[in-house]
Design goal:
Layout (H helix, E strand, L loop, with lengths): L1 E2 L6 E2 L22 E3 L2 E3 L15 H8 L4 H17 L5 E5 L5 H9 L4 E6 L2 H11 L3 E5 L11 E7 L8 H11 E12 L7 H5 L10 H8 L2 E9 L4 H16 L14 H19 L9 E8 L1
Parallel strand pairs: 4-7, 5-6, 5-8, 6-7, 8-9
Antiparallel strand pairs: 1-2, 3-4, 9-11, 10-11
Helix pairs in contact: 2-3, 2-9
This protein binds zinc ion.
The site of zinc ion has 8 residues, from loops.
Pfam families: Methyltransf_23 (PF13489)
Protein name: Methyltransferase
Organism: Microvirga aerophila
């Protein structure tokens, strides 16, 4: 079920993949849904804001997502966790789906899942729609106001919550939007001591100390099924890279958030092989104590 984006009264979804038709009107308050370029905009007042992300990033991100060691292996881990913990999922929402690269990986791994992707900035959704064609419902939405009720089996947020000041409010919203046995898969940047100019330029509100994501999810009504670090084997390289960024910034050299993805093909292949081994070991049951990211799977308690 979906609620009215204006008055939050619960309404039945219209027939078909899109929750609303273009001529939908709320029976309670009369509000309609604003469509831009064929995308339902549930928080149109937020479209032009720069809160939490610079939408120009999407143009650069889209170049790296399909080949970069980090994106490719993060997607492999996400799809493995999805298949293990939610093998019967029928409805999945990814908040902050950006250009749709994770949704594409999920569609490939679990083609029967109905996919919905939301993004605050519709500029990412233009890429997502090109990549996914009719394979996903795409919405412009503020994650702090997920207006679905008991709608999804799984909600994913992959490197999204660290951009949002009210991360706990988002987790409570996810809880309401999930079906009774539904759950979440969340990845976030880990360890405060890894903070660097890369976090500033990416508009991160925080990196998560060990245990914080689990505590916040439990407070929002979830029970933890799986928690591990990601990007553990390459952590020494990441520390070195971030230290270089700090030194460069002290020397007044302009920072570039995506410099870590700009590398030669052979180096990317080497790093990807290492991360592929790590993901394989995670799938085999290893829980990594430290790493650049934390990945948590949790179910509605
Ligand atoms: Zn209404």
């Amino acid at each position: 079920m979906w609620a009215c984006p204006k008055c939050h009264s619960v309404t039945e979804a219209s027939e078909g993949r899109e929750p609303w038709s273009e001529d939908w009107r709320c029976q309670n308050c009369g509000a309609g849904i604003e469509y831009r370029d064929g995308v339902a905009c549930l928080a149109p007042e937020m479209i032009d804001s720069l809160s939490g992300f610079d939408p120009q990033f999407f143009d650069i991100l889209v170049k790296y997502e399909e080949t970069s060691f980090w994106f490719v292996n993060r997607a492999a881990l996400i799809t493995a966790l999805l298949a293990r913990y939610f093998p019967h999922a029928a409805e999945l929402l990814e908040i902050g789906c950006g250009t749709g690269s994770v949704l594409m990986a999920i569609r490939k791994a679990m083609p029967r899942v109905n996919l919905t992707g939301s993004e605050l900035h519709p500029s990412g959704l233009i890429y997502a729609r090109e990549r996914l064609a009719d394979g996903a419902t795409l919405l412009q939405m503020d994650a702090r106001d997920i207006i679905a009720r008991s709608q999804f089996d799984v909600i994913g947020a992959f490197d999204v919550l660290e951009h949002i000041a009210e991360d706990e409010a988002v987790m409570r919203q996810m809880h309401v939007a999930l079906k009774p046995s539904g759950g979440v898969i969340v990845s976030v940047p880990q360890h405060r001591w890894l903070w660097s100019p890369a976090d500033d330029v990416a508009f991160h509100e925080r990196r998560y100390p060990r245990g914080e994501m689990e505590r916040k999810l439990e407070a929002a009504g979830f029970r933890i099924l799986h928690s591990t670090s990601f990007n553990s084997l390459l952590l020494p390289l990441m520390i070195a890279s971030r230290q270089m960024m700090i030194l460069r910034e002290r020397r007044g050299i302009k920072r570039d958030a995506l410099s870590e993805f700009q590398m030669s093909g052979w180096l990317n292949r080497v790093l990807s092989s290492v991360l592929r081994i790590e993901v394989g070991l995670t799938k085999a049951g290893i829980h990594w104590p430290v790493g650049g990211s934390r990945v948590v799977v949790a179910q509605k308690a």
